[in-house]
């Protein structure tokens, strides 16, 4: 396939991704990176999907099968049956400095080099991302978002795992009180509890989410 044809197909894929709705992009994101996301940022989703697809694109093509001897050559030159040895029966070991690393070790290496954690278990993606960071081709460190004033603002994603039925009951409760969304509920609840604990300064940081009185 010519370079022009590959470029045209790559451009077509990019345009198709940009045209997808968020649910479809989330699904493609999970297929490509192995991670789950509900990010509403389509540009971010498309970029991450394209990065993961680029990993697969640079993978070496499988070697062609050796040509089978024709009947004539088989008769003319009989091939002796190879002896089965331990060396021949053992599959070749993968090469490279990442070959012996487990997914968990690669994720740890990713955190060390890229500067942020990842939930991806895609070996090829993790290795590619680590190498890109080592070569200085991608941004490293915690991801930043922009505040309303245009200044960079560091954020942390806090894990919270709840049983499905517990989460459903919780959502019913805050919706019944007219709270707009789950984030507003969480921020208000945290601010209220901090105020209850007497941590007024910390509670004041959550005042935009609602009343934080004791």
What would the keywords be for this entry?
single chain, 214 residues, mainly alpha, two-stranded antiparallel sheet, 10 helices, 52% helix, 3% strand, disordered C terminus
Question: Residue share in helices?
Answer: 40-55%
Shape: elongated
Give the structural class.
Answer: mainly alpha
What is the straight-line distance between the termini? Answer: 69 Å
Q: What are the secondary-structure elements, in order, as H or E?
A: HHHHHHHEEHHH
Major beta-sheet overview? 2 strands, antiparallel
Low-confidence stretches: 209-214
- For the largest beta sheet, what order do the strands appear in spatially? 1-2
Instruction: Give me the count of strands.
Output: 2
Number of helices: 10
Strand content: under 5%
Brief digest:
This protein is 52% helix and 3% strand.
Structural overview:
It is a single chain. This protein has 214 residues and is mainly alpha-helical. Among the domains are: 8-59 and 97-142, no CATH class; 161-209, no CATH class. 52% of the residues lie in helices and 3% in strands. It has a two-stranded antiparallel sheet. Strand 1 (144-146) and strand 2 form a beta hairpin. The longest helix has 17 residues, at 3-19. The chain is elongated, with a radius of gyration of 27 Å.
């Amino acid at each position: 396939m010519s370079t022009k044809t590959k470029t045209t197909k790559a451009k077509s894929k990019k345009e198709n991704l940009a045209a997808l709705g968020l649910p479809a992009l989330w699904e493609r994101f999970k297929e490509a990176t192995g991670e789950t996301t509900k990010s509403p940022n389509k540009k971010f989703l498309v970029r991450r999907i394209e990065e993961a697809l680029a990993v697969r694109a640079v993978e070496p093509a499988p070697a062609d099968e050796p040509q089978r001897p024709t009947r004539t050559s088989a008769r003319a030159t009989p091939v002796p049956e190879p002896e089965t040895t331990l060396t021949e029966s053992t599959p070749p070991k993968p090469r490279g400095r990442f070959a012996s690393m487990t997914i968990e070790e690669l994720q740890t290496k990713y955190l060390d080099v890229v500067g942020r954690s990842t939930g991806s278990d895609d070996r090829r993606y993790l290795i590619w991302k680590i190498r890109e960071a080592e070569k200085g081709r991608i941004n490293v460190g915690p991801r930043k978002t922009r505040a309303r004033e245009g200044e960079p603002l560091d954020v942390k994603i806090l894990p919270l795992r709840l049983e499905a039925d517990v989460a459903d009951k919780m959502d019913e409760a805050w919706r019944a009180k007219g709270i707009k969304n789950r984030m507003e509920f969480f921020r208000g609840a945290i601010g209220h509890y901090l105020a209850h604990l007497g941590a007024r300064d910390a509670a004041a940081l959550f005042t935009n989410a609602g009343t934080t009185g004791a």
